[in-house]
Amino acid sequence: MTRAGLDPNSTAGADMPIERHIQLAVVGAGPAGLAAAIAAAKAGIEVLLVDENPVAQALMGLDVPLHFGGRMNPAVQNKPRMVERIVETNPGLAEAFELGIDVQLGVYAWGAFAKGPSLRSIAKPVLGLADEERSWLVSFDRLILATGARDLGMSFAGWEKPGVMGAQAALSLIERYRAFDGRRLLVLGSGALGMRVAGAALEQGLEVAGVVDVVPDPLGPDVLRPPLSKARVPFFGAHAVKQVLGKAEVEGVWLVRIAGGKPVARSERDIACDTVVCAIGAVPNVELMDVLGCRLVFDPKRGGHVPVLDADGSTSVPCVYAVGDCAGIFDKKIGDPEMAIAEGRRAAAAAAWALGATPVEHEMSAAFAPTFDAFGHWRRWLDAELAAGGMEVMVCQCEEVTRRELVELKPPRYLNWGGSQLKTRDVAALAKDGPVNADQVKRLTRAGMGTCQGRRCREQIQMMLAMSAKVPPEQIPLASYRAPVRPLPLSALWPHDETQATRDNWDIWFGIPTQWTAYWEMGETSPAVPGTVESSADSAK
Amino acid sequence: MSGNGIKGASVVIIGGGVTGLSTGWWLARNGVDVLVLDKGIVGWEASGRNGGGCTHAYSPFFMEEQKLWPQMEELLGYPTEYQRHRIRVTLDETQFNRQARIERLAGKQGFKVERLTPAEVRELVPLCGDNVYGGFLLDFGGHANPQRTSQAYAWALQDHGGKILQHATVTGITVRNGKAVEVVSDRGTFGCDSLVIAAGPQTAKLAAMVGADLPLAPARAEMIVTEPLPLMKHGGVDGNGLYGRQTLRGNLAYGGGPHEWLDWSEMAAPPRPTTPLLRHLSRRLAELFPKAAHVRVIRSWAGIVENTPDGRPVIDRLSDPGNVVLATMSSVGFGLSPASGRAIMELVRHGRCLFADLTPISLKRFKGLPADWRERQGWLPPDAALAGD
Questions:
Q1: What is the pLDDT of residue B387?
Q2: What angle do CA A19, A22, A26 make, to 5 degrees?
């Protein structure tokens, strides 16, 4: 439907097909999201809870949304079976079903959109949802994002081999899917995350070949240590990975001792394993917040870029809350799900009040301020891996960009560029022209532009750019996240609900016929006749 | 932040998009002392994110565009990813008849267009399917990488001694004795003998600082990008209501469809969110390339572009102040940038363009335009349009 007097080729007056409206949408059915959904439902709010698990095997194969490293077993192909397991392994889901929450599993939230200064065609905020077959839009009054965290990627020689994976991915496959395909794991990182994943593996009867860290002593909290001590898991302090061993897949790791920031000669040792788990850091999943335009801030103690939040968990976009790991992650939160649960309930209460309902009272814990500089620790790891592996190690696996190519700002290899002038155009030189921006660098080098949507390399690139430009990491702006925040097939995104008006009014560009008049037919006066709306024409742009 | 010790230049250019950068490069390679100011990063706005097309047969700059593109990498010394040829695919008779216009436009200027049967289209464009109606192979035109080309202009300009100052927002222009003599920014004041304003959507606000009335309406447009696919023989394939290309990496990058008219008062551009439009773009891309229907979309982007009331460029040297050139390409600037920059360079240096007649794109064609031209054309932001109900 087009309203008279408006440009029919513009978004003004155009319909956006919305499948349904919901009072409260919650994305993510981990502890925080479930707690939020349940608390809101108990307050009488109509709730839609979506969770992308079980994730399609095709997406797992792209290391999306986590760094699965090919360590899922074939059971993940069986979606109904995986749904059963997810319900089994997450008891809160049963309660959500009983409360009448509309729980949708295996559904991706690929975008969220709210009215803003340059997006005024959206009347009500909407959430973009999809499975592997189709996509649809849901409008909402309030949105609680409980999208969790992903793994910090850390490059070392051979990290592209199947069997190198992230800790969140390992935990997901071991605990949630029960579809983990490794037997003997080497864990990198001795913080709460590393100890959690080592403990989970031991509990499933898997072997843990060791826990490695670049610092001399393990970092994780005492409460997570007993299973590791009991199983006599060795700790390799002041070590880094020199190289992953194995032809097609991980067969072992060559560790090297690091002293004074340098690899120690003849200190290498072989560790046999089939899986290397990167548990060095967890990064909040702020993708949907970035797409929505929520204000983000760099906080080295909470996993890097995190949302700016009110006391109740509200982001800078008024109808959107962030809870759980995506709101900021640190060791205490990894070790204690109650923190995430409390955040979920607090946001649900705020959303309930805003929607005119009275929430159930919960005891609120005091805010916790983490003190450990996690980002600084990541940087120590990267320094050690740079010392151990050098500059020829791949930093972006999708686009095959090495550390050297990144900091020297090399155009991608497929261009075969032989020009000499580029030699002087490295990141350090770029920094002289103004603050280095990760989005600018990624378009020049293609690092971070691949199918995993920069999930494995984003923070490494940030650290390396900061290093090359000699600035603190917070001065490198977040490489932007873009919808769809999950790579989805054209056929699934295809709008089955597209209106006839959208089809009728579709133009390749602006639908201004005089824009394409041959110059020899243009007069000296403008043909624009104010007062009439030009009709649409599919001109060749 | 200071102005890096820069006092001014013979020619100051406001706007580090492709048009301003090309102008600066043409001036610098001709030995002119030039300074480009940008409120952000070079090529950051629509210049660095667009369809990358280099095929504008209706434009007074067409001949120059075609002449220059094959030489640009050599002239600049940096990669642009320019690739020759263009294929227009049509899926029905209506699309075919509209696209056929290119035969007349190109033919008149001595360029060849070959009609393709559906089988020939499928042969040249393996991603196409049984729904092809016909196509056109253009023995001219092409496509390039917008971000890489913008950066190439910037670097080449510096190689010739030109200067670029990023993150400098212009707040005023001083006019004295009928000349723009200095540009005031938040990073200092810069003297100039000549001034070029080529600042995309902001060009109108900057023109107002020297008393010129340039009618412009900004709008946001969107594109999608897929995961990489094996390279087709020609990457410059479009049709079915989409413009775009297969990049040399193999990604399909395509846009089209509804734009959103914007209005803002600050000099800084607002954010550029994408929208659920990406679903509708996905449909049209899957229709154009049925054999790529399974391919995954990995990102989308939006850019803000400006249009004049008739959608044509304005490249004009003002009479008062007489040392100012205004330049807007009216939402179609990337591909034409090698030529537009040369034209502006000549306007600055010689007072006229030596290779093309700029009369059809002069500012004076809008004389007498009513102040409410945007309302009359319906070019309003959605909520402003609703408020007027």
A1: 57
A2: 110
